[in-house]
Amino acid sequence: MKTNHQINKFNIMTTRRNFIKQATIGTAAFSIGGVIPGMSAKSYANVIGSNDKIRVGVIGVNARGAALAANFAKQSGCEVTRVCDVDSRAITRCISSIEKAMNYKPKGEKDIRKALETKDTDAFIIATPDHWHAPAALLAMQAGKDVYLEKPCSYAPAEGEILIRAAEKYKRVLQMGNQRRSWPNVQEGIRALKEGVIGNVHFGKAWYTNNRKPIGVGKEAPVPEWLDWDLWQGPAPRVPYKDNVVHYNWHWFWRWGTGEALNNGTHMVDILRWGMEADYPTMVNSVGGRYFADDDWETPDTQVINLEFGNKLSMTWEGRSCNGRHVEGSSVGSIFYGDKGSLLIAGDDSYKIFSPDNKILKEQNSKIAIDPRNLMNPAESLDALHIHNFFNAIQKGETLNSDIVSGHKSTLLVQLGNISQRTGRSLRIDDMNGRILNDPEAMKLWSRDYEPGWEMKL
């Protein structure tokens, strides 16, 4: 009789193999620690770490990565051994923070390739800019490391397909950081949805709002002494340094970033896809643009992505980077519409169920405060659940709450929205593998141009 460990590993591998068979039809060869506040002992019992320490390195520690490094360091059974960043100031800050909090000092390294050569690190967290996500994860798996990869899992769809193949080839655990998959009330709400609490669900809406400021018009300038600009660009074709890109504004440049759709839309679109049990769409379109300022910002600050899944269901994502008016009382969220009511999952670990006449039938709230607009660390305590799911997958074969097959599918939905936005037309999609049909121009954006020598290669 198979053990639970064997069954879980078999299920993971079977899912990956089925995806690979679908996603590669007709393709060419690829190139390249403590109790959580507000949680009961019963809830927390599922996230206690093993006595065997997992040694972790963190790549990209300027903002989100620094928060993740601190969170991982606090977990029982974990030690942060390596800190890697192209910004020497970020390395110093992160090492100092961990040393002060945990009374040990990780080693610092500028070059990801050297960091991955180390023998004292079992897994790596990838929290770099988007254009580095998939290449860094691939290099880590090739170095024999398990990977916790922040969303989005890839800059372009082809990179997500490569990561699925790589996780299978190198037999590594690869978790995407869409942490809401591990939040208990969100999980409970999704279970209720699938059990039919609002009947048949045919439409879902997700959104993100903020009040981001203009980024101005950048000027070419000398590279700061604390920054390795060549390594920062990494896989992306080289351009001169400008003074309005590093560190956060890269999100709004197509060369390195993926806009608000992948920056924040990935999280809530993933919840829709999870709850509606959707895989690949049949049609995608996007409208929007850079409306709020005349500056270097290239991606849309206002965007609506529509996705159809045959004649079965549809979903939409609305992004407003520069107008922070809430939807359903929340700056970020997802809502499902069924024939017997609606179910709202807002930006925190909560959900509400509404009757068809808008009466609240059930409201499940969290005791843990969350700020969805916090750029570094919106939900540290809850994110520990996702971290321990990653640990348990490594040590016990536990099924990942967000494996790379699932992560790729959710990332792909908003990537297709961006491709529609950039080509200016609706896209017809093969619902067996997510690929764009009969549009060679749009398919050029399925991958990306790489700096020579930095191509992703299995």
Describe the structure.
The strands form 2 sheets. Strands 14-13-12-11-7-10-9-8-15 form a 9-stranded mixed beta sheet, with helices on one face. A 6-stranded parallel beta sheet has the order 3-2-1-4-5-6, with helices on both faces. With 458 residues, it is α/β, with parallel strands linked by helices. A hairpin with a 5-residue loop joins strand 13 (351-354) and strand 14 (360-364). It is globular and about 60 Å long. The chain has 13 helices and 15 strands. The chain has helices at 4-23, 41-44, 64-74, 88-102, 112-115, 130-142, 157-170, 184-194, 229-233, 259-276, 380-396, 404-423, 440-443; strands at 54-59, 78-84, 107-109, 123-126, 146-149, 174-176, 201-209, 283-289, 302-309, 313-320, 332-338, 341-345, 351-354, 360-364, 427-428. Helix 3 (64-74) packs parallel to helix 4, helix 7 (157-170) runs antiparallel to helix 12 and helix 10 packs across helix 12 (404-423). The chain starts with a helix and ends in a 15-residue tail after the last helix.
